[in-house]
């Protein structure tokens, strides 16, 4: 059977904000066990060989979501909220831009009383909340990316920015 290119698919706005609210209202610091339970409560399936990786309903063969942890504390959470398009048509690009704008608007309106800072970057927006959790939504060429940083990671990122370490390109060299 021939495979047809998968088009860009996303969660509806209400499901998207439900996922964000579940993560930002959970007590922090969060342990890996709590993160696994939260992912599973939202319908993500754990990848048994690596229990920090998860399948969203958009995942095809490989996990598309994960969390990082150090010293039994979750640092960053990458949550898949869309299926990337396999082609890059103008229609897909327009849809990605439209959904990105819609998702930004729902974060702005649903969390307006909790947002302490909003920063627009080249193709992403970062919101820092009163509880020091950072939400980063990025518009990628074939997808939309959602990352949530713990209060501890948000503080580390803030300190790096204050020290001028906003880009690692100057520090890292290609081999």
Alpha carbon gap, first and last residue: 42 Å
| Poorly predicted tracts of residues | 1-5, 168-175
| Count of beta strands | 10
Strand order of the largest sheet: 2-3-4-5-10-9-8-7
Explained architecture:
- It is a single chain.
- The protein has four helices and ten strands.
- It is an alpha+beta fold.
- The protein has an eight-stranded antiparallel β-sheet. Strands 1-6 form a two-stranded antiparallel sheet.
- A hairpin with a 4-residue loop joins β9 and β10.
- The longest helix is centred in the middle third of the chain and has 21 residues, at 90-110.
- The chain is globular and about 40 Å long.
- Residues 1-5 and 168-175 have low confidence and may be disordered.
What features would you highlight for this structure?
175 residues; alpha+beta; eight-stranded antiparallel β-sheet; 4 helices; 10 strands; globular; disordered N terminus; disordered C terminus
Give a quick summary of the entry:
This protein is α+β, with helices and mostly antiparallel strands and 175 residues long. It is 32% helix and 27% strand.
